[in-house]
Amino acid sequence: GLHLQATKQPTELPGVKERWKFIEPTLAKAPTSFQIVPMIGSMGCPYTCGFCVDAHVDYPPLSFDQISEDLQFLLTKIKRPIVAWHDPNFGVRFQDYMRAIETAIPPHRIDFIAESTLSLLSEPHLKRLKENGFKAILPGIESWYDMGEKSRTGKQTGTDKVKQVADHINLILRYIPYVQVNFVLGLDSD
Questions:
Q1: Is residue 1 part of a domain?
Q2: % of the chain beyond a pLDDT of 70
Q3: What is the CATH number for 43?
Q4: Domain-embedded: residue 106
Q5: Would 190 be classed as within a structural domain?
Q6: Residue 142 forms beta bridges with which residues?
């Protein structure tokens, strides 16, 4: 066999327009009218979680101009698209992402789903996500005893962390109607 390796993550990927010949037939096979278009805005990860394969990979965002073009293209193909961001930490460059969305499409023309971390989901960010049509968010809590920098809980653990995270999730629910939290089971710290 042949082993291929790159020195770093790619700096660009094919956009939605280029991938449309694959996306369209996949959406047509969806068993319901709930059709989701996958997008990604970054590679790697800025965090250093021991369980993550991307923890030691530099975090480069992809082109924000490409994101804007992809969103505009989607509006020519689907009346009311739903976009799921497949970045494990959507919003690391929050202002840039929001600008790319806001300059590309009218408010509430596309519904968005994103995976993120509690540390990125401050109340001002939540307000802006709501204004831009985000309907679901999947924050990674990861652990009740570790990963405090991602969950915005610092050194709190156990019951103290549960209470703080619960308050944060309730804050999110004031702005985003659907929340699914993610945990990693089996960490040494748990």
A1: no
A2: 83
A3: 3.30.750.210
A4: yes
A5: no
A6: 183
pLDDT > 60? residue 36: yes
**Please, are residues 161 and 153 in contact by the beta-carbon 8 Å criterion?**
yes
Per-residue pLDDT, averaged over 168-188, amounts to: 84
Cα 103 to Cα 175: distance, rounded to the nearest angstrom: 22
Total domains in the fold of the chain: 1
pLDDT digits (tens, 9 = 90+) for 81-102: 999 998 877 888 999 999 999 9
Q: What is the number of alpha carbons within 13 Å of residue 74 lying toward its C-beta?
A: 28
Is residue 11, in this structure, part of any structural domain at all? no
Token pair listed for 190: 């748990």
One-letter amino acid of 86: H
Domain that holds residue 32: 16-183
Please indicate, yes or no, whether the overall pTM of this predicted structure exceeds 0.90.
Answer: no
Q: CA angle, corner 21, sides to 71 and 84, nearest 5?
A: 40
Residue partners of 78: CB distance under 8 A and separation at least 6 = 27, 35, 37
pLDDT band at 186 (very low <50, low <70, confident <90, very high): low
